[in-house]
Amino acid sequence: MFEWLKKWTSPSKLKRAGVMGMNARNFHVISKYNNRRLYPLVDDKVKTKTLASKIGISTPKLIGKIEFQYEVKNILQIIGAEREFVIKPAQGSGGKGVLVIKDYSEGIFTTASGKKITYNDVYKHISNILSGLYSLGGKYDAAIIEELVHFSDIFKEYSYQGVPDVRLIIYKGYPILAMTRLPTKASGGRANLHQGAVGVGLDIQTGKALHGVCRDKPITIQPDTGADLMQIEVPFWREHLLIGALAYDMTGLGYLGADIVLDARKGPMMLELNARPGLAIQIANGIGLKSRIKEVDKDYPEGLSAEERVDFVLNYKREK
Amino acid sequence: MLKKFASVRFILFVFLLISVLFAAYSIYYKIEYWGFSFMPKTNTNVWTVEAHISFDPTGDPIKVSLTTPRSNAAFKVLEENVIAPDYKVTKNQSASRLILSASAQDKPQDIYYKIMLFDNVASRGKMWAPQPDEPEAPFFDEQKLAAAKQILELSKKKYQGDRVVQIIKLLNETPLEPAVQAYLPIKNTQSVMVEIISQLLALEKISARAARGFKLEESKKSLSPDLMLEAYVNGSWRVYDIKTAKKGVPDNFILFQRGGKSLIDVEGGENSVIKFSVLKSVTPSFNLAKQRAKISNSKSWFDYSIYNLPLAQQNTLKWLSIFPLAILVIVIVRNIIGLQTMGTFTPMLLAMSLVKTGFWPGLLCFAIIMGLGLSIRFVMSKLNLLLVPRISAVVIFVILIMQILTITGYRLHFAIAQSAVFFPIIIMSWIIERASITWEEDGALNAGREIIYSLVAAIATYFVINSEYIRHIMFAFNELNLVILFIVMLLGTYTGYRLVELKRFRPLVRG
To answer: Is the pTM value of this prediction over 0.80?
Structure first.
């Protein structure tokens, strides 16, 4: 009779587990460490790219940018000889409005899912982006066209189409939690947990899998491919963390989400930054964000360089 | 930093406390002095009593002193009016007497004193007054004293109840006891009776005095005041009917004057006559309270309150003053419970529509409009339209759906469908657009969930704002909005878990 109650827990237990709730995130962390003035740096992907290249973070190459409706007809010129690319809103969030073109030849665009679309479809998609359909608050937006990432083979068996990525949470410049987000059939090939992608928590010191979560429920195998999620170990882990640490230097945001993809040839690249990263990463890690934040506030030194911070995280001795 | 947040919360808490205290005082004030009530739609009897004083002047300067009723008894004075053109009117508050003075006149004088009273049921029967001194024993000769003592003995033997009741009953027997008959004068008026009873009570060391008033009955066009006896028994003044010995002020009886002084004194006049007429009307308490507040002491305050505005504006404000409560519900649903709704205040606007359409008809209409709208939107998504024209098209479709629903509803005498017009067109279009985008982007599951959550929030809001009782309270005691403001701001510092997070983060708790 009270079976359903077992799906619930008490606030005191959550508190003991160091879990951070939405209200606490907004009040204690975001409003405290993230100056609103800095948001455009992460909300506008063109700005993010420019800043990133200055500080030495590699990002997918920008092919072109479309700001006004009359420019949309130039799309084919902008693409030029590129055969594969991604069209996305400059200020979109959560993977909304991202159109991945795997192949373009003779007026036919092939999307990540293998669907063939025409110039008209692409034209409409870009128009929608410009009219603000995917941006926060429906503001007029720009569309950017960037190089397609060839994600590393190590993720191949774990994801269904799309681009899997690594999400890092960076607090005061220290990467504190990590997870990899694997697109599923249900998520439509997008690496967005909200849409049904799988999240796998990664040990912040090793990049090895901890727990899997899909739609806020724990899982251990990829629902589409059946691969064992617990076998995941992300290579170039230190490089991943370094991108995260540098993202803090570059933006000054005290609480930051960095989305990183692993390109087969170019190594880890930063896709985008998020000033209000979600909380599902806690479930994927089985670790409360609050406990990690407390740890940083208490133990981690201030004034280190990005490299030093990454080394500090990698060598930090945590009591088990 | 943590200290800073604590102090923000503390400051807000102090403000909340101040606003609660202010609201409490203001509510008390409105109830006590303006006669506002927590209950909507209660009716109150309003009596208009007119005293017509007429006398012939003697040629000397005139001074008329009239006892006026006090508010603190069973009735409260709503309005007071003196029609006496050539007189200077002063009011002696403490003695509750109205003094009219004028220079010498030669024609017969007519003065009208009009008051509007309303039934103050709550305070009826409470008549506190300071304890009187022990009454002086009347000066009786031996023979009369013996007769009086005999009557007192007789009354004690024959009747139950307190001494006052016993005496009054004995004096009103039919036929009278021979001893009583001998004691009473031949010409027995009310005032003589009061005098006799008071004297007898004085022998028993009970203070007593006359009280004048009359029964409020509309039929009587012209009436003269009745005398009642007031006696100090068991620590308070009690009113007795001098014929039946019934205790207490009878229903609809207004005591004009207490304490034995005359009802009217006229200097510089003779043959003075005072006649009363009474008119009854029934007014909704709230309107009455507003009217009353207008003439109360706090005139200037009331002038700046909502209730002094024209009725049309009042109705708009009545609608507005429920908004803060609806907003509070939304804040609770989103930040405490944690349901993600479509747009922050969309559910509130939906709830407003539900109030106008009625609950089930509204939900049915909402479902029809959403269903048709979404299907049309899906067809339209194949047309590759740009955002603004597409939403505009959805708006027009929603208008068409509403028109069709209303017209067919009217033709088929199906009242439910006619309520479609009350839904805000733009809001409906936005919900359809948002739902269809969410559907395409995040799947039907998320879209359905958002619609359901928005509806849940709307329904919760509906039940709060649809209550006649709550609406009345929020309007009549609009200072509560200030309290809500600070509650909402305090909720802005709530950093605990949301209700849904207790389920969401359950996997993080081992065991």
So the answer is: no
